[in-house]
Amino acid sequence: MATCIVFGAGAFGTAMSAALARSSAIGRVYLYGRDRKVIDGINRYGINERVIPQVGTHRLSTDKILATTSLHDLPQTASSYFHAIPVQQSMAFLRHLEDAHFPLGGCPYVNCSKGVMLYEGNKLMTVSQMFGHCLGLKGHYMALSGPSFAQGLLEAAPCVMSLAGGNGEVAELLRASQGIFIEDTPKLTVEAVEWAGAMKNVCALAYGWVEASLNCNTAAAVVTVMWRELFGLLGREDESSRYSFFESSGGLGDLLVTCSGGKSRNVGYGRDVAEAQQREGPVATDLTARPTVEGLHTVKALLSFYGPDRIPRTSRIIEGLQGLRDPAAAVANALRAYVWGLSIC
User: Fold this and answer.
1) Domain CATH for 24
2) Does the annotation list 43 as a binding residue?
3) Last residue of a domain, one of 157, 183, 209
4) Which sites bind substrate (predicted)?
């Protein structure tokens, strides 16, 4: 029987642990987290109290899941590792693994986090690039994405996910879990999966703001414009992977459920901003106001790295969200430039 380790005891890490524990091919799941109170609650009662507001009360299988705050409690070898650490904390965590000489042993290391961060002020990095930056970590890197909110995973609701990085053993471990279906997408690259996951969060942030400020027709148009502009940053060499990914569950499926499923923190934050602007008029919005809203960190990193000239339509829409422009004028300006091919003014 396989042994799996999940790094990160937040909502998704907890849900992924539960999903892996349901797999008939897995005998033990280790869940690593930093909060001693959370870890004790999981081991004693099978409940992660910190994520109850997000996903409700779901009892984990304490027969198969063992939670810990210490890397020393984890086995020296495992079948696969799952990374569910927030992107903004991922570099520090990966360096912690490297400094501890943690023995990945070339085994699959599957990233489940979505976002990018600006490193040292001038490097835009995905988790795969952070992993490569930590030269002491020797693992087979992969990326997992799809319409898979934590609550659905905990409830074993059927979902289809995209796995990039080419390892059939991990796919089979996941397929043996009740509710998880892994699609066959050989053309997908890790780069496309991670980039799209990050850009999806930015689109969701804008969707929530535009839908609440204007209407759903406009919000759909804005997402179309932003997705095309942001995914285009990957470059033409990734064009085939770009379209292949959009047709996958990790692309179109994830974008749909995030914008319309009612559970996205990014969409919720956008709506909160719109409601505040409607009550108080244009108000300045702090793009780092909520640490768990990954789209805020991603859009701030994008604007710092690329600047408004490289992503003009996205920049104009975000200026509206920030209270720097009238919402209707900001959106109309971006859509007009997209449809007519005009310069942003």
Assistant:
1) 3.40.50.720
2) no
3) 183
4) 114, 265-266
